[in-house]
Design a protein that fits this description.
The chain is an alpha+beta fold. It has 5 helices and 13 strands. The strands form 3 sheets. Strands 1, 2, 3, 4, 5, 6, 7 and 8 form an 8-stranded mixed sheet that branches. Strand 5 and strand 6 form a beta hairpin. It is flat.
Length: 275
Amino acid sequence: MKNMIAAIAISGFIIISCKKTENSSTETVVNDSVQAKAFTVDSVKVNDSLQLSDSLKVKYSSTMLVFPDIKDKTLLDSIYFGQKNISDFSKSGIQAWLEKDKNEYFNKIKKDSRQWIADMNFSQEWYSDTGMKLMSKQKDYLHIQYIWGSYEGGAHDNYGFSERVFDVKNNKKLLLPDITSMPKTKIQAMLLKNINKINSGTTDNNGAVNNSEMLLVDVIPVTENFYFDEKNLYFHYSPYEIAAFAAGDITIPVSWTELKGTVNPEFEKRMGLSY
């Protein structure tokens, strides 16, 4: 089984060395819109650790993207929905916010541990790890994946994902009705039918385990964690959302052919979908 699934899932964000702050290089993405403008993506990383006692070490790691070309505050607020009270969306402003968040995390663990840290009888390493990853930018649709992982005692790590697609042409977060008018009950039936199309990677002594074998629900809800490409609309579920933790995260595709006749005409034209 995937006993170490959380560590694997967030390995792209965890930095073992205790570097305090790193600024990544700037990346330029070619915008495939008619205007063909360059789209700059930058990022800020903060990694630090605190040794609270001989038995407890705490790590903080976070990677956040920076979008110098996006000026609309409403859109920026939506992009940074998980980071409250950010008013400065520049690279230095986001770095300052991360340093503040790191200090608040360390101070909280330090304060909360006063009553029990002396009773810890074996070594533990706790952590908080968050990240943003630019997955794609096509037709002025910006797909960002947000991931978090943490461990603060217990049987295993916890982790989860959030997928968001932003329409940078119209300065808004894309909602499912912007893509399809298919009733949710019909989408739910498609999700159940397609549950095993992308295997989560879970195995047992007999080999691969189907996602359907680990479901905890009879009806798969239509999550807001969706994204798309030229072939499918994808729904992404974090551990425990619909299946056992051992299943890890599950992605279920629904093809455009299955959604034919319900796809928003403007979206269909913009994406150049063919059935």
